[in-house]
Amino acid sequence: MAIQGATGGAGTGVIPGVRFGHVAFRVADLDHSIRWYGAAFGAREAFRASHDDGSPQLVYLEFAPGQFVELFPNGKNPIQVPPDPIGYGHTCLLVDDLAATLAHLEGLGVTPTAPPRQGRAGQSLAFIADPDGNRIELMEIPPQSPIYR
Fold this sequence. Notes:
The chain is of the alpha/beta class. Helices cover 15% and strands 30% of the residues. The protein folds into 2 domains: 20-76, Roll (2,3-Dihydroxybiphenyl 1,2-Dioxygenase, domain 1), CATH 3.10.180; 90-149, 2,3-Dihydroxybiphenyl 1,2-Dioxygenase, domain 1 (Roll), CATH 3.10.180.10. The strands form 2 sheets. A 4-stranded mixed β-sheet has the order 1-4-3-2, with helices on one face. A 4-stranded mixed β-sheet has the order 5-8-7-6, with no helix packed on it. The protein is globular.
């Protein structure tokens, strides 16, 4: 279905109040992932739901007010990414100081998957992976960048 003339975006009134809520991952070890996101980014548990038997069903971790990652336990089979896939690519976390963020993560044994670089909009960026291999882009956006808000 083609959408003619859709220019959407924040403040356009196309869908009042639309904004990003969270990204969700199924993880192999829920407690390990909770600790990792906490140590790496200061994410805190905001909500936990349990099955009737008391086992964890899902956990929301909050990075900043209203910014969440949702974790589901008992992931077993890593997704094999084909060459040139269509679909999900990565999650981006905005940081105030990329160099300081990378130094902090290095202290936790987390290294970028490639050297940090400058993006086309003047932002600094680097990619890492969480314990389950989910790609995370870390991005510092300077005020002069056209994507700065």
